[in-house]
Amino acid sequence: MATTADIRTGLIIKLDNSLYSVVEFGQNKTARAAAKVWAKLKGVDNSRSIEHTWNSGDTIYPVRVEKKTFQFLYKDDSGYNFMDNETFEQIALPETMIDAPQFLKDGQEVSVSINTETDQHMSVELPDKIVMKVTYSEPGLKGDTATRTLKQATVETGATVNVPLFVNEGELIRVNTKTGDYIERVKE
Predict the structure, then answer these.
(1) pLDDT attached to residue 150
(2) Which of 10, 131, 8, 125 is CA-nearest to residue 68?
(3) Rounded to whole angstroms, what are the CA distances from 25 to 19, 91, 152?
(4) Percent helix, strand, coil in the chain (nearest 5)?
(5) SUPFAM superfamilies, alphabetically (predicted)?
């Protein structure tokens, strides 16, 4: 059985019959009272974000999660369709389970978290950084580089990303999928 000493970022635990992922955690120690362990939790099977506090040494119930590589195929009325790269089994998942659906490209590999106790698909994670092609961008003004001015650009999936003025239509850029921020221009 696991205790509060086993808490770490990314651990998925069962709490009040729901699954939560640990986003952040820490300890509060005082001179007279016993230590407390706190955690910020993000709902895996619901959209809630909560904070929870345990006494140090309390029992927690971690859920064993397996990550498998899937490939994004297409989007239709049933949801986003993915294929397991090993078994070629296809699954359809709702948009709420995907961390950044606006950056999904056809054929892109993603990581799907599966609850091994119930074989239920829990979430879909894109790679942290992906390369996208800019399909539309207003031309930047020459010489306007004294400040870090940004403009909006549309990428191949239809999402908009704020980019520096020197990024033009047709260029490849690297995007952080967690924040949606521009990272750098990529040479072909």
Answers:
(1) 86
(2) 125
(3) 16, 33, 36
(4) 5, 55, 40
(5) Nucleic acid-binding proteins, Translation proteins SH3-like domain
Yes or no: say if 41 and 20 are a contact pair by the CB < 8 Å rule. yes
Asked if residue 135 lies in contact with residue 164, where contact means CB atoms within 8 angstroms, the answer is: no
Query: Tokens at residue 51, please?
Result: 């904070």
Sign of CA dihedral 127, 185, 181, 91: negative
User: Which tokens go with 90?
Assistant: 């296809």
Return the CATH fold of 2-62: SH3 type barrels. (2.30.30)
Are the CB atoms for 130 and 175 separated by under 8 Å? yes
Looking at residue 60, its amino acid is I
Mean pLDDT by 10 residues, the chain (188 residues): 87 89 89 87 84 91 91 92 93 88 92 88 90 88 68 92 89 92 88
List Cα–Cα distances, 131 to 83, 111, 171, in angstroms: 21, 17, 10
Asked: is 129-186 a CATH 3.60.10.10 domain? The reply is no
What is the token pair recorded at 141? 């003004």
